[in-house]
Amino acid sequence: MSEIIDTLISPEPAAPEEGLPLGRRSTLRLALRSRRVQFGGSLVILMIAIALIGPHVTPHSPDAILGIPFQGTSPGLPFGADYLGRDVLSRVLAGGQALVWMSLASAAIGMLLGVPAGMLAAYYGGWRDELIMRGSDVLLALPIIVFALLFVSLLGTELWLIVLLIGISHAPQVARVTRGITEDVTHREFIQSAIAIGIKGPRLLFGEILPNIITPLTVEFGLRVVWSVSAVAGLSVLGAGIQPPAADWGLMVSENSGGLAVQPLGVVVPIICIGLFAVGFNILTEGIARTVAGIDRRRSAE
Amino acid sequence: MNNPDAGAPARPQEAAASPAAEAADHPERPVVSPDPRIPAATAGRPGAGTVVAASVRGLRVELAADRDVVSDVSFDIGAGEIVGLVGESGSGKTTVGMALLGFARRGAVIAAGSAVLAGTGSSGTTDILALPEKRRRTLRGRVVAYIPQDPAASLNPSLKIERQLSEVIRAHEGNGAGRQAAGERIRAVLAEVGLKPELTLGRYPHQLSGGQMQRVCIAMALILRPRVLVLDEPTTGLDVSTQAVILKLLRGLCTSHQIGALYVTHDLSVLAEIADRVLVMYAGRVVEDGGTSQVFGRAKHPYSRALLGSVPDVRHRTELSVIPGRTAPPGQRPSGCAFHPRCPLAEDRCKTKEPGTTDFDGHLVRCHRAAQVAGQADRVILPTPVPASGRTAVLSVRGLSAGYGQHAVLRDISLEVFEGECLAIVGESGSGKTTLSRCLIGLHAQQDGEVSYRGASLAAEARQRSAAHRQRLQYIFQSPFNSLNPRKSVSAILTTAYRTFFREGKETEQAAVADALAAVGLSARLGSALPDELSGGERQRVSIARALICQPDILLCDEVTSALDVSVQASILRLLGGLREERGLSMVFVTHNLAVVRNIADRVLVLAGGRVVETAPAAEILDNPRSHYTKTLISNTPSLDVTV
What we know:
The complex is a heterodimer of chains A (about 300) and B (about 650).
Chain A (H helix, E strand, L loop, with lengths): L1 H7 L15 H10 L1 H19 L34 H7 L2 H28 L1 H16 L2 H12 L3 H28 L2 H8 L4 H37 L11 H8 L8 H29 L3 H5 L1
Helix pairs in contact in A: 2-12, 3-5, 3-12, 5-6, 5-8, 5-10, 6-8, 7-8, 8-10, 10-11, 10-12, 11-12
Chain B lengths: L18 H7 L26 E13 L2 E12 L3 E5 L6 H8 L8 E10 L6 E3 L5 H7 L4 E4 L3 H4 L6 H13 L5 H14 L4 H4 L9 H13 L5 E5 L7 H17 L3 E6 L2 H7 L2 E6 L2 E7 H7 L3 H8 L38 H5 L5 E3 L2 E3 L27 E12 L2 E12 L3 E6 L5 H9 L5 E7 L2 E2 L9 H6 E4 L13 H12 L4 H14 L16 H13 L5 E5 L7 H18 L2 E6 L2 H7 L2 E6 L2 E7 H6 L4 H9 L8
Parallel strand pairs in B: 3-8, 3-9, 6-7, 7-8, 15-20, 15-21, 18-19, 19-20
Antiparallel strand pairs in B: 1-2, 1-4, 4-5, 9-10, 10-12, 11-12, 13-14, 13-16, 16-17, 21-22
Helix pairs in contact in B: 6-8, 8-9, 16-17, 16-18, 17-18, 18-19
């Protein structure tokens, strides 16, 4: 018996078969080869680099008044001056940090709250599922911008507060998505097999299930960042974010909107920056999602 | 009806045409008398028809210039003849079937060859592969039609059957045919496939059974009276009784309409039942082509012989032969004869020179040593096993009922599994056999009655059972593609299972993993592989290793070989048999395949509609079934024995 079986095993390394789902390693590798991921990823890296390195390489102090208000492009002021006569380029370089960290942090908070909630709801089912999902429905019904403005007016414009509020507003959607994909995975045979030998609780959720839903969750995280960018920038424009005289892209849009006709660069440049960051994340996420779904898989594999 | 060569528009008076005009207008209608425009079948070839319905020559489908999926495939299908195309996964059988329809799957191209179909064009024949895609489309359905493996997936779930059938007519003939005439044709074809039009036309696919849906697909394929049918495993998803009926129906229709059919399947027993001729494919080549009795009775290619030897038979327990090694994917196939690394007869020239086809009186074999191979492929018939002497019940079930919500699936089941025996639970789909095995392992909460292990009662849910009980009962799942965590390496999968029951040092753990892999015949090197880097058979071995590492008493096997190729199935069955002997394991083997039952089981429990029909020793039940249900089940199970 054993002799027969020994000869069954091919000496050469096993070759992956076609048509089977691809593992984590190859999904990531394939994703990196997709045009979308490359392009979106570069945009994101570029914008993060501007936000992080920018404050240290400003040609002028972002607070220094160097020209007349709404002065157009001139030597030393490549993007002109803002409503107080400060250098737009310097303020753009200095003003990205808050948006970048706030959007990433609030997306992360949303994931940290939503993922465990969704997984628990799917794993336990029954009344616990109902409780978690109906609770998140209630949260979904609240208009988050109005609430953020309310809290900010009560407690002051604390950035962590804004991050927390936006993060909480993401949690219900994240929970909903997580619950769906967890439920799919839970019904698959390898999870059933783990349940049958008595693996349960956190070992099952985090040891067996989580590795199998991490890719769609990555996609979800990307989407949440995009939403956060719009929420953070939106609050800034409404005046509930970073307060003057600090430099901030969202704030610049609202500050300089009065001079839009005379000095459009003061508004357009920060808008482009916000846009590129959001769009970059969006394309990156889309690329990963498509690789996972197999749409770009074949093309990028060749 | 569109004439693809003239590109003529639809003819509006189709239905009104007089019989004489009709014959002239429809050269593709089946002609019973030999048509001089169609070349006669190669002389000396066995086959039902003297007229060739399809003729494939030198077909080559490739992924890249040096990576062929199939190459040098040539065969004829006579009118009214059913040609079986058999092979294991990766052999290229489906690729050949699709090529006959002028299709190549994504990423592959039809690089060379011709597929001449009867019944079209000015000369009476057309090479579908020489046509551009647009013209190929006009032939599909009308000249060559396709019957899929999974009828449920190929019917549109949101359209009524009538609409789906009439769309076939409309797609090829436009609306000109007239509603009423089309309706009449639909009714006629439904009657032909044994469906009552009034009960079928107004229904949606989900309101039909699997067999009825397959009949609808057959009707859809037949409605335009094609000359050639490509059948892609049309009965694989069906129960044996339904399969028997569908096979009979197909056989009758092909004969009465003089349709040439290519029956693509992995199931040799089905071909023994239905095919006139059989082509055996291996690594993209037709290695053997002969009459059904020639191939089944006197196979000449070593691969065909080994393949036949690996098929379990419902009539007697045989020693299943195992083919060493595994099939290489396109691009990695060995030089010379692709089978040589696995072939017991291989000699030096087999390694370097690809064999040509040798003709033994119409029996074509692609092997250097075919001349030396003769006679019946040896099948060692094994004696009926002596029932296990141990009469201690390790697992017993009393009055078990289970269901999903209001729907009862199992009713009052009682059974016993004795120490060291293999009990097969047999049933058709919907019999409740999988629910029963899930109740035993504790994955089905909604159950009443008692399940006990060596006298100790077991809770309904695994998580409420004691660790010792969970350890003693191990379950092996049906699908090797779904039962291993795709994100964990083989050794991580085994370690997780081991740690659930044993808390020992790292070294003991690693030793246990190595032992378990060795026990299932896998090299320790595979420990670092992820499941998708393994073949189906290797994965199923890992599943078995995962059960063994827990040191069980009882293995519950749920259809463990149904997703595997026959030669892999043979090796898994031998592995399980060996393990049972070595370790004195008791086994519950859930299956729908009676041939497998004959090969592995000591006792059989037949389940139908959630109730036990009968329980008896395997040989007794298979040779002298008492209940009517079991009798039909057995008589409908195809056997390799070709009655000539």
